[in-house]
Amino acid sequence: PLLAAAAARANITGSAASLPAGRSLYGYWVSGSLLNSLLGDGAAEALQNASWDEWSDFVETLQDWLAEPKAATVTLNGADRT
Fold first, then answer.
1. Are strands 74-76 and 79-81 parallel, antiparallel or unpaired?
2. Running DSSP on this structure, what letter comes out for residue 60?
């Protein structure tokens, strides 16, 4: 909720979601529609509820995808997404 409030104060509106990173005050603002395009419906919620291992694997997979886009499967919140 604090990241969402900060996004609103920064005039980031629309389909933005906040994703906390671990157990710290750090986080990311992301476009919900972009996440859904990449990972399917409910992507922001899946990332928000992912375990640390799932989050880490997702980031590594995304980094590889940015270098060479191709289908890949990641597990987020216990469910596979391609």
1. antiparallel
2. H
For residue 48, what pLDDT band results from cuts at 50, 70 and 90? confident
Question: Largest Cα–Cα distance in the chain?
Answer: 37
70 touches 53 (CB < 8 A): no
Contact 44, 17 (CB under 8 A): yes
Angle at 70 between CA 37 and CA 45, to 5 degrees: 35
Look up residue 77 and give its DSSP letter.
Answer: T
Task: Name beta bridge partners: 29.
Answer: 18
This prediction's pTM: 0.64
What are the pLDDT digits (tens) for 19-43?
655 555 556 667 788 888 989 999 9
HEC string of 4-49 equals HHHHHHCCCCCCEEEEECCCCCCEEEEEHHHHHHHHCCCHHHHHHC
